[in-house]
Amino acid sequence: MGKLGTGFDSDTLRQISSKIIATPIHKKLIFETIEEPNRTTWIEPCYLMDLEYASLSNNGTYREPVFKRIIHADTQVDILS
Questions:
Q1: Which of 53, 81, 56, 55 is nearest to 69 (CA)?
Q2: For 63, which DSSP code?
Q3: What's the whole-model pTM score?
């Protein structure tokens, strides 16, 4: 869990946004409190994100996460290719 802000450019961000906007909204699937709940939209869990990170913090968030790719969970196909 955590925020991801590097490893992609604006074109990649637009492509990801268009896929997410087209994904059905879903209820929150975790019980933990999250940062910025009013800015969070839960979607159907159909994508898997591949990222690299330096380590995990004490509260379980990623340190220095970098985006690598995003794939559809059912087909295992990179949605940006």
A1: 81
A2: E
A3: 0.74
Structure tokens at 41: 């939209």
- Amino acid, res. 79: I
How far is C-alpha 6 from the geometric centre of its chain's CA atoms? 12
Q: Which residues contact 1 (CB under 8 A, 6 or more apart)?
A: 34, 60, 61, 62
Q: Specify the pLDDT at position 6.
A: 92
Residue ranges of the chain with per-residue pLDDT less than 50: none
Exposed/middle/buried for residue 47 (C-beta within 10 Å: 0-12, 13-18, 19+): middle
Rounded to whole angstroms, how far apart are CA atoms 78 and 66?
16
List pLDDT tens digits, range 49-65: 999 999 999 988 899 99
Three-state DSSP class for residue 49: strand
